[in-house]
Amino acid sequence: MGSFIANLAQIIALCRKEIVALLKDPANRVILVGPALIQSMLFGYAATFDLKYVPYAVLDQSHSAASTDFLSHLEGTGIFRREATLANPHQIGQVIEEGRVLMVVSIPTDFADRLAMGRRAPVQIILDGRNSTTAGAAAGYVNAVTTSFNEARGVASPVTVVRRAWFNPNLDSRWQIMPAMIATLSMLQTLLLAALSVAREREQGTFDQLLVTPLTPLQILVGKAVPSVLVGVMQSTIVLLIVRFWFEIPMAGSLWLFYLGLFSFTGASVGIGMSISALSLNMQQAMLYTFLVIMPLTLLSGLITPVRNMPEVLQVLTYVNPLRFGVDLVRRVYLEGAGLLDVAPDFLPLVVVAGVTLPLAAWLFRHRLA
Amino acid sequence: MTETPPSVVIEGLSKRFDGPDGKPFEAIDNMSLTIRPGTLAAFVGPDGSGKTTLMRMMAGLLQPDDGSLHVLGIDLAEDPQAVQNRISYMPQRFGLYEDLSVQENLDLYADLHGVPQDVRSERFSRLLAMTDLAHFTGRPAGKLSGGMKQKLGLACTLVRVPDLLLLDEPSVGVDPLSRRDLWEIIKQLIAEEGLSVIVSTAYMDEAGRCDHVFVLNGGRLLAEGTPADLTARAKGLTYVVTPQDGVPARNLQARLIDAPDLVVDAVPAGGRVHFIRQPDSDEARLHALLPDCDPQPRKEELEDAFMLLLHQQDTPGQDASTPPPLASQEIHGPTNGHGEGPVILVRDLVRRFGDFTAVANTSFDVARGEIFGLLGPNGAGKTTTFRMLCGLLPATSGELQVAGVNLRTARSAARARIGYVAQKFALYSNLTVYENLDFFGGAYGLRGARRRKRVEEIICQFELDPSAQSGNLPLGYKQRLAMAAGLLHEPEILFLDEPTSGIDPLARRAFWRTITALAQAGVTVVVTTHFMEEAEYCDRIAIQDAGRLLAIGTPQQVREESGLEGGHMNEAFIAIVEKARAEEGQAQEAA
């Protein structure tokens, strides 16, 4: 018991040193809060797939009451704004290429006649496919408008689809992205912070001074990992507060489970960061390795693109990616209100990653010597 | 012959920099001097005296704040390029491309200086012969030893024949053998090519070889003249004294240096003590200081004159970088472990990196309370040995016991009994003195009230300011803090890695005074150094070369072994290493 307390006191001394050194530097203090704040605002406003404004051009060769009616339905949504009215089909290429419009609606000359005869009356839309996501969304809106146009004319199709999106009723993409940011944004910083922690000491020569103290590698590991985890969770909290109270996305799950998930996830991130740190001989190497790692971690996380859609080899690779399970855990607890049993499978890979990388880092402290 | 203008004319030159604490200081303070052409001139002075700043201004790399600077008769302010076309400058850390071979480095510098192809081959072969690098032209520069790198740097500087050669501390961090070679090359160049050379150095023996010496300190010119002129300033003030039997020379030296009103400087040398008395000191009091000893006059040397000049300028309290030495009674000895037998025991220690043997079959003991010195050229294996002793590097094979604990099995326990002071300042720069000591106290397992008391004690002992930010401390105080951190847990053994590299002679005296006090208090001290004269402070020294232990014993024994009794430690060292290398060569030929 006595030796346990002595052990703990040594670790606490190291933790305190780490935190004091971190907070002493005014630049560090800004970095701890600033990026999380600014990035979550940026992502909240900038990263959205929802189409709120579609510039388009019209080539109306029908010049009829029917075509005007159709177009007014389109404009009535408030999303479509007519940027140009074209006189002939040759102009279509030009307006799309210049990027002035996202879409051209072309109504053929026999549109009104066919409608009057009760025959199918095709309307052509030409989309700028250079951004497939927005083009697809725009086409979807046009479909919806067409359906309502048909209904207004009393021609309803016998089958109708009624849509109910669970957990995100308006299918707002901000709801999809922002909770995931609680994990993602803090990971960028904890990874870097942990990666620099040992590399900085190696570069400045203080690591030798640390290694000649009776501190064991395990104690050094704990003393260095705990402050990093705390910083990571604190940053997650900043993002959480912004998501909940600024963007007002309702939280469905329990807070304790949410934080349990955050701690496991941050632990795994710190483990990766510490391994990078123990492997690097100086800060430059540590930063380089971190940036090399962050890109694939983000891509393979399912943050933007679902893991299900990836080739199988990559899907297997995602099992070592803490961000994948961090994002999943956070999203499900936040949006679905998932319980511990629902998300239990997410914890396993996180614990395994932390359980491998943290001891690896401790081993490397002494065995990675120039 | 037409009148050649002076190599350098400096008038009222000043340069200001911002110090680490944000306050500006005068790196060069209203300096005026003239250097005659065709001479070998030296700037000597402690670190921070302005040598490098002056060199960089002469090379047109720094703009002076005030005053004028003419090099080779050209005003540097008006036409720096014209000057740079005619001079060659070798900075302290020469920019060799470590991944390029020796030949590629030479080619690159020849290209940069626009040396015509037809003269290259002759010039290169001459430089390679002179620097003894002809066998290594294919080797990457990064794989050369420190001395060889420095020689290659010199060769690259000399790819074309300049009118004036500027060398900024060419021998810093170079072992005595390479240092001697480097000066051979410089002498040869002057004799054969009639170069004007300006060199800056911290070594007095190097300054003694020059035609004209300028002594700098704190950005000002203290004195100038031929080495003989300068040496004469110490005439009649220099003495040598032999301690009584059984008293280490360093204890007598400590007593002398503790009386600054009587004695300017004292150093142990060959079991005796060399000292300089204050010019107006009282004869009777001096004798009272040395009871039962008979000081004999001794021939003055340039170093004596240099120390005299430095002391005359430094009024107490003016130079903040050099803390006053600590008195012995203030230092606590180790409280844990007073066992019998050697405190460090090394048997057949081997360390290999791949197929390279850094340390080969080394065995030695260090007795309790001893000051033990590890000496050797760069790459000799002394750092590797040292790191294994501190537990920073695992041994490949062999037995290693420190403070009675086997370092291979109980490293944490062994580490609790040793203190370590790194070569570079290795405490946390952005923490205060108190925070640093508090942390290391905690890391060494001190807790609560005991830690607070111990930290306060050591701050008091080492006369430190607890609230000062560690990174902004002057060099001397930084080292003091590092020692305080190493001694917090009252270790049995203190390890010091090149503690005196890069600090000026005054600070070095103060540092060794502290070490002497520690040894008197019973702490065992293991120290590495490349200043050979510092071996004189040690009870025993070990000399290593190419991973092998060449000599071990008291400085006197080692000197006798070299066959150069009474000579400088430097010469004894060179003789031992050369003898061993020659034997190695013969053995290889025979095989």
UniProtKB/TrEMBL annotation, chain A:
Pfam families hit by this protein: ABC2_membrane_3
InterPro entries xrefs: ABC-2_transporter_component, ABC2_TM, ABC2_TM_bact-type
Organism: Novosphingobium malaysiense
Top-level taxon: Bacteria
All copies of domain ABC transmembrane type-2, residue ranges: 139-368
Protein name (database record): Antibiotic ABC transporter permease
Annotated GO MF terms: ABC-type transporter activity
Membrane topology value: Multi-pass membrane protein
Taxon lineage: Bacteria, Pseudomonadati, Pseudomonadota, Alphaproteobacteria, Sphingomonadales
Location(s) in or outside the cell: Cell membrane
Transmembrane segments: 177-199, 220-247, 253-274, 286-304, 347-365
Automatic annotation (TrEMBL), chain B:
CDD domains registered for this protein in UniProt: ABC_DR_subfamily_A (cd03230)
Database matches in Gene3D superfamilies: P-loop containing nucleotide triphosphate hydrolases
Domain of life: Bacteria
UniProt xrefs under SMART domains: AAA
GO terms, molecular function: ATP binding; ATP hydrolysis activity
ABC transporter domain span: 8-243, 344-571
Alphabetized UniProt keyword annotations: ATP-binding, Nucleotide-binding
Record protein name field: ABC transporter ATP-binding protein
Organism: Novosphingobium malaysiense
